[in-house]
Amino acid sequence: MKRSPTRVRSQSVVLTLAFLLVPFVVQGQGSRAFTPEDALNVRTPRIQDVSEDGRWVATTVQRHRDRLNVDHERFGDPTYVSPSLSEVVVVDTRSGDQRSLFDAPLVARAFAWEPGGSRLAFLAYMADAFRLMVYDAERGDLSEVRLNSDLEIASNSPVVWRPEENTLLVGLRREGWAAEARQAYLDLSVGPIVVQDSEDDFLAWDAVRKRSSEMITVLVSVDAGAVREIVAETSIQDPRFSDDGSFLTYMVAERLRTSYERGEGTEYEIFQLDLSGGEPRSVHPAGERRVRPIWTKAGDAFAYSVQGNVFVRDLAADSAVNLTEEHRTPLSEDDSTKTSFSVMRWRADGEALLISSQKGYHLLDPKSGELDLVYEFQGDEEDRPRLGLQSWSKDGRYLYLSSSARDRWVRGLVRYDLQTRRMEDLVLDDKLYRAWRVSEDGSRIVFTRSDGNRPNQIWVADGSMSDQRQLTDFNPWLRDVQLTRSELVEYLDVDGEKLYGILYYPIDYELGKRYPLVAEIYETFFDNGYNANMNLLTARGWFGFRPSVDLEIGFPGEAWLKGVTTAINKVVDRGLVDGEKLGVHGTSYGGYATNLLITQTDRFAAAVNISGKVNIISFLGDSEKITTRNYSAAEEGQDRIGATLWEQPQKYIAHSAIMFADRINTPLLMLTGEGDWNVPATNQREMYYALRRLGKKVTWVNYMRAGHGAGRAGTVEDFMDHWMRMFEWYGEHFDEPDEPRAKTTTERGGS
Fold first, then answer.
1. Minimal CA–CA distance to 112: which of 168, 49, 156, 157?
2. What are the two backbone dihedrals, phi and then psi, of residue 250, each rounded to the nearest 5 degrees?
3. CA–CA separation, 87 vs 72, rounded Å?
4. CA angle 11-14-15, nearest 5°?
5. What letter would DSSP give residue 442?
6. For the chain, how big is the Rg over CA atoms in Å?
7. What's the rounded Cα separation, in Å, for the pair 407 and 622?
8. H or E stretch including 565?
9. What does 91-139 look like in DSSP terms, one character per residue?
C-alpha cells in the first residue's frame, strides 16, 4: 500500500531566548560581562545548502548547550546517534523572512535543494529513527516522506535529488544490521571475553567501525514513498546523477585490512550505473590509490590528479588520459623542479578544465590537451594573498575567489575576468567572511560575515557585492554584553621565523595599565572571529592570547618554547602585560603542548592541560576505539615525530612530558573526561601520580560524564564547573581575590 507524505506545519522562527545568568562581576558602563552561561547560549549558524538561484538558504543553528549530554562511552557504536542538536532554519534572501522548521532543536543532516527548484530534502532524527523530510519553501510546507519499506535510513545516508524526476537517492540499512552492529560493539565493550588476533585482517575496533559504511542505495519516490533498490549493500561514496538523470556515478571504498601506512588498506573503484537497467560498470579500476574525481556538470567525464599530473576520463572512452605529461617542464632555468598540476573545476559546458600549478591557473582543453596560463601568480607564495576558488560563472567568463592577506586582516572576495585577464576586488576589508555561495547565474552571493569579534551572521549581496544585506541576527541579546576586541600581533620566534598571534583585550582595558595574560596554545592561529574561550578570559580582566608556533618534523617539542615565549615577550615589551602573571593552557594537542612547555620553562604562574596526552609512548595504544590513528599521528601526522617508536625511541621519550615531570615547577591543573575516546583520562593520570610523587603542585579533575574536552564536553553542570575551576586556578596564582564558587560536582579525592 502506498503511503502519502505526512504534512507538518512549518512555523515562523521566534528569535528569542530565555537566559539564566549566573552571578558575575559587571565591568564597564551600561552593559555586563560575558559569562559561561552566555557561552552555552550563543547561536552559531552554519549554511548547509543554497538553492541554485541563491534565493533559499538552508541553515542549521547550534548552541554549545545543544552539543552536551553525549554518551561518550558509546563512541564506536555504529548504532548510536549522538545528540548534536540544531535548529533548522530556512532563509529567503529576497525578503529576509526566516522559517524554523521544528519547534525544538534536533539532529538533522544531509541537506540538499532540488536542482532548479525550491524544495529542500534532508534527514531528521525523530522517534529514534532518521526520517526523510522535504520542505517546500514556496508553499511553506514540511513533509515526511514515508518509505514503503521496513528498512531504516542509514545515519550517514546521502540525500541526492535525481534531476527531472520526483525522486531522491538515500541509503538504507539491511534487515538485521542494527542488531548485528550493536552486538559487535557489545562483544568488544563488555565481553565477557575479548580475543584479538594479529592474523585477523582488521583490528577488532576497525571491524566494528567498518559496519557504519554499509548501506543499500535506493531511489525513493517523494510523492508515494515507493522504494527501488539500485545498488546492493556496499560502502558507497559521492553518488551523483548525470545532468539528465539517466545514470548514476559513484565510488566504492572497500576496506581490505587494517593498515598502518597511509594510502593502504582500502580499495577504491568508480562505477557508472544506467538507471534504465543493467549492471554497474567500472569506469576507474580498483586500486589502493585513492583518486578524488572532479566531475563535469553533465556527469559524463571526470578529472583527477596523481603525482602532479592531471588525468581526464571521458565515460565514453576506454580509459583515462594523462593530459599534462608534456607540460611538466622545469619551473625555470634556475629551478629544475617540474611543474606540478592539480585539478580545480570544470567549466559549466565541460569544454574546459581549470587546473593550478606553482605558476598560476591554467585552462586545459580536455580534447586537444592544449594548456593556457590564464592567471600568473605574482611574487613569492608567502607574500601574496591566499586565494580559494569559490565559483566559476555559468558563461565561463568569471572566477570567483576568496582572498586573504597573509600579514594582515584583509579578507573578502575577488573576481577574475578570463576574457580581459583582470582581477577585480569585490570586497576586501577587515571583516571575516566564510561559506561563499554564488548563484548559478552569478546575480546573488550568500555568505557569512563577522566583524571579527562577534558571531557570524548570514548575509546576501548582488553579483558585484555592491549591495550587502544582513539577513539574520541570531543573538540580539549580545548587544547588552561586552565582548572582547582582537588584534593581530606579528613577532619572530627564536629561529627568526615570522609568526602571528591573536591578542584579545580585557573588556575593561585602560591604556598604560598592565594586565595578566592567559595564552591558549595549539599550532597556528591567524584569523580572528567570535571565540567563546577568549571572551570568558577577557571578561575576567585578563588578556587572552593565541600565539602561533612553527612545528618542525622530528623536533616539534621545541616549537612552543621558541614561539609562545617570544610572542608573550612582544606584548610584555609593549607595556600591556604583567610578566609575573602569565597563564597557559590548551585542549587536546594544545594540552599536550602545555604540559611539554612547562617542562622547559618556569615562565608561567599557572598552567592547565585539558584532555592532552602526557606520555606519547603509552598513548600509542591507549585509545583503542580510534584504532591506528595514534600510531599514524606520531609517525607521519600531527605529532610530527617522523619515525616509529623502534626507529627513534629517544624522540618519543623527548616528546613525553611525563619523562621530565621532575622539571615542572609551574602549578598544573589537569581536566579530563572519563569517557574520552581520543585521549583517555588514564594518560593524564600518569602525570598526576608523577607530580604528586615529586611533591609538585597539581590538581586533577576528572569529569565522569564528559569526553574529549573535559567539562566542556559533559553536561551543563560540568561546563560551568570546568570554567569556574579555570578562573579560580588562574586567579589564585595571579594573586587575585577569591570569588566563592558553588560546588556543583562531587569532587574526586586524592590519594
1. 49
2. -165, 165
3. 23
4. 145
5. S
6. 27
7. 40
8. helix 559-573
9. EETTT--EEESSSS-B-EEEEEEPTTSSEEEEEEEETTEEEEEEEETTT
Please answer whether residues 140 and 99 qualify as being in contact, where contact means their C-beta atoms are separated by less than 8 angstroms.
Answer: yes
Residues 6+ apart with CB under 8 A from 622: 613, 630, 679, 680, 682, 683
Residue 320: all three cell numbers together: 583515462
Q: Is residue 641 within 8 Å of 634, Cβ to Cβ? A: yes
DSSP 201: S
705-728 pLDDT, tens digit per residue, is: 999 999 999 999 999 999 999 999
Helices (H), 249-355: none
Does residue 1 contact residue 223 with C-beta atoms inside 8 Å? no
In the block, cell 579560580 appears at: 728
Q: Are 156 and 178 contacting, i.e. CB atoms less than 8 angstroms apart?
A: no
**Residue 5 host element (H or E):** none
399 bridge partner residues: 392, 416
Please state the φ and ψ torsions of residue 93, each to the nearest 5 degrees: -75, -15
Burial class (CB in 10 A: 0-12, 13-18, 19+), 47: buried
Contact predicate 59/113, CB 8 Å:
no
Q: Is the pLDDT of residue 17 over 50?
A: no
- What angle, 0 to 180 degrees and rounded to 10, lies between the N-to-C axes of helices 589-597 and 559-573? 80
Query: For residues 668 and 687, what is the distance between their CA atoms, to the nearest angstrom?
Result: 10
How far does the chain reach from its first CA to its final CA, in angstroms? 66
Could you tell me the pLDDT band of residue 739, with boundaries at 50, 70 and 90?
Answer: low
Query: How far is Cα 63 from Cα 722, in angstroms, rounded to an integer?
Result: 17
Q: pTM for this structure? A: 0.91
Beta pairing class for 215-221 and 167-172: antiparallel
**Residue appearing with cell numbers 569579534:** 453
Q: Is the dihedral of CA 507, 545, 566, 697 positive or negative?
A: positive
Model confidence over 314-354: pLDDT tens digits?
999 999 999 999 999 998 888 889 999 999 999 999 999 99
